[in-house]
Design a protein that fits this description.
The complex is a heterodimer. Chain A is of the alpha/beta class. Chain A is 21% helix and 35% strand. Chain A has helices at 18-29, 66-79, 146-154, 171-182, 201-209, 267-271, 309-329, 401-405, and strands at residues 6-14, 34-37, 53-55, 64-65, 83-85, 89-97, 100-107, 110-121, 125-127, 136-137, 143-145, 158-159, 163-167, 186-191, 214-215, 218-224, 231-236, 249-252, 255-258, 262-264, 296-298, 338-342, 348-350, 353-354, 360-365, 370-377, 382-389, 395-399, 410-417. In chain A, the strands form 7 sheets. In chain A, strands 1, 2, 5, 6, 7, 8 and 21 form a 7-stranded mixed β-sheet that branches. Chain A has a 5-stranded parallel β-sheet with strand order 11-19-13-14-15. In chain A, helix 4 (171-182) links the parallel strand 13 (163-167) and strand 14 (186-191). In chain A, helix 1 (18-29) runs parallel beside helix 2. The longest helix of chain A is centred in the C-terminal third of the chain and has 21 residues, at 309-329. Chain A starts with 5 loop residues before the first strand and ends with a strand. Chain B has 13 helices and 24 strands. In chain B, a hairpin with a 5-residue loop joins strand 16 (256-259) and strand 17 (265-268). In chain B, helix 1 (12-21) runs parallel beside helix 5, helix 1 (12-21) crosses helix 8 and helix 10 (415-427) crosses helix 11. Chain B starts with a strand and ends with a helix. The chains are: A alpha/beta, B alpha+beta. At the A-B interface, strand 7, strand 8, strand 10, helix 3 and strand 12 of A face strand 19, helix 9, helix 12, strand 24 and helix 13 of B. Strand 12 of chain A pairs antiparallel with strand 24 (485-486) of chain B, so a sheet runs across the interface. The complex binds flavin-adenine dinucleotide. The site of flavin-adenine dinucleotide has 40 residues of chain B, from helix 1, strand 19 and helix 8.
Chain lengths: 418, 496
Amino acid sequence: MNDLPMLNYDVVVIGGGPAGMAAAVRAKKLGLKVLLLDDNDYLGGILPQCIHPGFGLHYFKEELTGPEFAARFAKRLVELGVDYRTAARVLEIKNYSDLEKVVVFSSPSGAYQVWTRTIIYAAGARERHAFEIGIVGDRGAGIYTAGEAQTLMDIYGVMPGKEIVIVGSGDVGLIMARRFALEGAKVKAVIELMPYPGGLARNIMILRDFDIPLYLSHKVVEVRGKERVERVKIVKVDENLREIPGTEFWIEADTLIISAGLVPNVKLLTAIGVEIDPATGGPVVNDLFETSVPGIFAAGNSVIINDLVDYVAEQGELAAEGARLFIDKEGIPTRRWIKLEKGENVRLLVPHYLSGERDVWIYARVSKPMENVEVRFPEIGKKLRLPVVKPAEMLRVKLRREEIAKARDGITMEVVPL
Amino acid sequence: MKTKVAIIGAGISGASIARVLSRYENLEVHLIEKAPDVGWGVSKANTALIHGGYDDDPKKYPMRAKLCIRGNRLWHQWVKELEIPHVWNGALIVATKEEDFDELERLLERGRENGVPEMRIVDREELFHLEPNLTKEAIGALWVPIVGQIGPIPAVIAIVENAVANGVKTHLETEVTGIKVENGEVRGVETKDGFIEADVVINAAGLYADEIARMAGIDYFEIHPRKGEYFLFDDSIPGPRRVLFPTPTPISKGIVVTTEISGHLMIGPNAQDLPPEEKENLATTREGLEQVWEGAKKLWPQLPPRSKVIRTFAGLRPEPTGGDFIIKAEEEVWGFINVAGIRSPGLTSAPAIAYEVAEIIQRDLGIELVEKRKWNPYRKEITHFFMLSPAQINEVVKRDPAYGKVICRCNRVSEGDVLEAIERMKFIGIKTPSVDSVKFRTKATTGTCQGSFCRPRIIQLLAREYGVGPWEVTLKGKGSEVGIGDVKVLLRGEEA
Ligand SMILES: Cc1cc2nc3c(=O)[nH]c(=O)nc-3n(C[C@H](O)[C@H](O)[C@H](O)COP(=O)(O)OP(=O)(O)OC[C@H]3O[C@@H](n4cnc5c(N)ncnc54)[C@H](O)[C@@H]3O)c2cc1C
């Protein structure tokens, strides 16, 4: 270690996507010495491959494409003079003490060690792949995750195929359905395991616009085609997601796109013992997005899978504020931590702990869709009516400082029908 | 005058033979393979074990019994000379019922007969010392410390690189379609790319060895495929320290639970016999995978959730008539040597098979083999970024900055590793760029995310280095192109 070039920073931001860029910009504005590291050749994370519109409505009050959103943030970063390195891969994080961390990274100019007071971990998520969701059969060309297909098309200019079956009706799957259709491919089906579609309402419209059949309560179980995909086998499932025998059928296609959800990238965090919430797959965090290791903050999809880039950026900024406070006070002051608990029809939520020192945004997802509901926090008597909730749409609810103050030890969030 | 030797099949058998024969001054060795790369036949998907040599009955299967233990011993030297990834971690054949000990005693006896050293039966206490997380049902085991594991395709690649460095000529993507025999002597092989003259033809064609033999007029055996399926788990899942077998039944060695050399928990294989015409049927099946799961659970009860599966795959064992390896010079056709029916433990036996063939050439064909004065036994392993310390990274980036740039996140493969792989692909004569060729040399795309992040970058590097469009790069050879054209190809109406 001693023979590695050494750098010194107040905060190292790991990940140059929207969460990381927002964190770096805010940290810099708060007067911190910031280094941002990303292993791509460019800033923006996955945004540069998302050439469709729908980004930044909340943040910039204007609808942008992914590359545009990324470019605006990258510009701010550069204008503010934030140090950043692309093609730089973090290999290890070491928690030297609560006040000092070491980040080891590799880059084309070699490996470095960075001594830093805080870390903001914003390394995003990975996509679930065909093997993980139990698809059997052959393994020829033409099986891609949605993000990989998107990268191939929109970064490298490759058309993967012409007859497409898409697994998963989440936003990513639907947007790829449109992308393929726009380039002249035939999208033969979108297959969704659940009895309801997984995407935002505006994206479900895509299916109608392009005349794409959606099969709800169905799953892809097998792919055949030795060199390249030739056909995929589909089966219907009952309300317990069990396959119904005799309902199998085949669709001929040369390409199978897997859009079966994202999993936070947390390997570097688990390696140093950061506590992980099995429900989100990301770290357990407090209301400044600090993880269970003091001084290590996290933000964006590596904490919780978000639907909107605006929320991701918001989390990055909050983490930067956390880092500033941490440095000023040599640790986040502990008066009391109120645990936020999941109640009825809440599948996951962050943050997990509230200090009661500030207002917080709660990000949550329900387990099942419901109409005419009340979101309740019984311990503090807060209630909020909503016409609909869907697992696909993240709930974002603000709790005010005064409201949190009413709680004794825990606060439960529940979503109940009226 | 040199004797021309044509080896059909660049699997572990053919590659090993090529290496051993590359040692001789008076041979000109040609290694012929129909696939775009080496090691993509039977040698590609197997349990990767260097077996202990205790389970083959020397009366029923003399070749297997003899070559397995000899192969095991030779691998100790070969993995070092060729820098092949390996681990010698030993195996436990686990008893869960009192009756199982009878079978273990029998294996122990047979092992002694075959000359296997160091085996013994261990009691429950010692067993759990060797393998703490084994099923609590276990009551004892046969401990075979000489068992090891290697990377099978990396092994074939290493052997071929060394063989080529010693003068062997490869002919990849060259399918043999006929054997020319005149007056009872071989003259050469016909291929889709023309005729290759040869005085000696060695048939190491794996699943297709029966078809090749028939081309030379030899039809006393047939090969049928026996499928085995596997699960591979994320490397965050702890696996056993030893290779774990159940007590074998008369039909099968049983489903193995092991941590393969890259550190992934692996379970499998089952055994399903397929008809001879299904030699390409490598599809995984739900029934087969279910069998594997149930079988593995008996030894290793805490199997992870299915969401921790990163890959499932299947291999085909080439099962010959009679069950033993068929390694001999055929008398009817002078110069034709069969290396057929190389089922399990063929990977283990491969180096021994190769020496056996050299002996056959001398003894049965009467060709005296003259050693080269300079033969290079060594081959250097490709640079693996994941094995470098940060200080070593700073050394390699001086040579080439690409070595500092990680492109496969899960397995930490650098761009330099990939470029070096491509250089080595070209060195052994690979004509069609494929992602799998890079994968087997670098481990890129084989981690938790299965390549969804790094595959496009590898495609781009292959396209650049081979001078083709990225859509022309293949996953695993012609017919598996990663795309159908540039992104506007359908709108222009030009696609193939
Ligand atoms: C499920 C399974 C598990 C196994 N586990 C183990 C184990 O743990 N340990 C062990 O020791 N062994 C094991 N084995 C056995 C071992 O894998 C094989 O014995 C070995 O790989 C056979 O190698 P080979 O070179 O003979 O055949 P292959 O690897 O199949 O090589 C033959 C080559 O010939 C080529 N070819 C065929 N026809 C032609 C043609 N007409 N023209 C040109 N080329 C042609 C093929 O493309 C192929 O590359 C296992 C096998 C399986 C399937």
